[in-house]
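Q:
Got a chain?
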Amino acid sequence: MRRILIVDDDAAYLRSLRRRLSATGLVVQAAGCGVEALEHAHQNDFDLVVTDLQMPGVDGYTLAQRLRSIHPETPFVLMSGAPDMQAVKGEWFAKLQKPFSDEVLRTTLQQALIAQNNLLPFYRSQLRALVVEDQPADACLLTTLLRSTKYSDIEVEQYETVADAVARLEHEAFDIILSDLSLLDLSGAAVVQQLRSSAPNTPVIVVSETGDKKRAAEFLRIGAQDFLFKSELTSSGMERAIRFALARGRTERRLSSMAHTDPLTGLNNRRRLLAQLHELLHRQKHQRHALLFFDLDGFKAINDNLGHEAGDQLLREAARRIRESLRSSHDLAGRLGGDEFAVLLRDIEGERDAFQIATRSRLALSEPIEIGGHSVAVRATVGVALYPNHATEGPELVRCADAAMYHGKKLGRNIVSVYRASHAVTKRSKPSLHSRLAHALRTQAFDVVYQPQIDLDTRQVYAVEALVRWPDEPTVSVRSIIHGLEQMGHIRELGELVLNRSCGQLRKWRAQGYAMKLAVNLSPAEFGERNLVARILRVVAVHDLRNEDLILELPESGISQDFRRARNIGSELASAGVHLCVDDFGTGYTCLGHLDQLSLSAVKLDRTFVKQLPTSLRATAVVDAVVGIARAFQLRVMAKGVENEAQLRFLRDRGCQFIQGFHCASPMTPDRLDDWLRRQQSRPSDISALDPGGYDEANLRSSAS
């Protein structure tokens, strides 16, 4: 019997829909809100979910996102009376405009259920399970439960020790591993670590006689996909655990792929390409290789004149032409960022071979491209560096290819330039800030650090703000970095880097049990990007986060420069659940009428006022005014730049809800923030007891944004 979940906050409509569906012979479960639907989904399996769009709390869009993470095979049908329902994004099997006839309803559900069958090939195909259990009775129980699930053709192998299981994993692949924690040769965390090390892509489900939720969480942190208690094992519970583990495994593989692929072009990203270069030079030391650096000449002008969408189309076409001009799969192409690409040529004859391939790629790029009715001529300057002729280590080879490319630009562009020792002399004179910034983007020289934001009511970490740092150039301020990249047209690349890296880091902290949100800054220069909202939401979804986990901080100056665009972007993001905050509030020219239209959740008081507290009458008046305005618009207030106890007490007494600053915590690397969070858990919930991090605050202040 097929089970279907229907969700709608209109009780009368829900009853009517349930009667209409029950007549079709389906088993129907009804939920009056998104939260209730989530509870049902965690307790039961459903073949189909039909949900209303606009509901209080968890709406239909958010509900589908959350359920898809635990039931990836389930199709979702959206129903709504809203006239703009077709514009709702997401992976919907169908969208039904209320009111709809019984015939339309029956046809849609029939097609969705047929599709659901096609989305479950693993229920009909063979599933290989490895059981590691040294108690015969328990091994028999696990095998029996595995074979009683929906998986029609399941093969089970059982071993009594981790050593025997690891030996088997060296020769055979399995879809799932179930293991006890107390075995003849190993026990505890070492069991999971050994199995994960031997089969990193195979989900491990831990099965234990005893334990509690805290202990279960510990094993989930070190790599187990699930933790089951033997006394509570059932066939349905086993089936749900396997499906969830397989789904999470697919998600991890998808994330791994996303982490190594440039989303715009499908090429390897910078990190993957540089890792491949490092591996190649250490694995094939006695062969000749080459590294090509491509820079598209005049791309910024095309991007500015025809728009970002045309620029993206050009980059995709350039990537395709570069890839097709190479020697099949023998060479490796990647996008370094912006309009720069690189190619790793493996096992070449010598300089002439590398020069010919680079020339072939350059000529392929020079053919005109039709974009939006315009014929665009693309030119590229290519730098070539050879291993081991020019360098024997990856980083040095990168520098040589980069230097050769810049030398080619000086000679007139649109040429292939092979590295020569004289190029290094030219490079020794310090290049311009723009050149150094471009190089920093190519080589991933920027770091992301995180500064906690404290909730004054709960005394807990409310969020962490992601801040960019340039370790190689500590004297260059964040403001100069942002301004330089905005001028160069590369701020989007930095924004993508920070958002991707920080969302990935938040996912790790969430897995460790921390519930804070993530605050990320949005540059005004990004407002003009047509697909900005879609890009942001895609990154959040890729890292299995909720939209409401993200806080976007928009500078007040940017809002006043292009209010209409800021309002539209803010409305789309807020509708999706993202929190919006105006940064540096009080330094721009936002009028109160505009403030009411921005879909905000908070305003952030600029540090220039905070640092004068509590002695300055002017600063005191500004804080009182900001708090009063925020209350009137039902917004929360955050103050940044809090550096002493007197400022903290003043802000708390005046009604400020959140604070951020060196008095509570410095910006920290992920590892140091991990240590800081663990220390805070053992401290009393008092702001005065917070540890600022113990780092060089003077240096951090000099580079703080």
About this structure: Residues 118-124, 425-430, 694-705 have pLDDT under 50 and may be disordered.
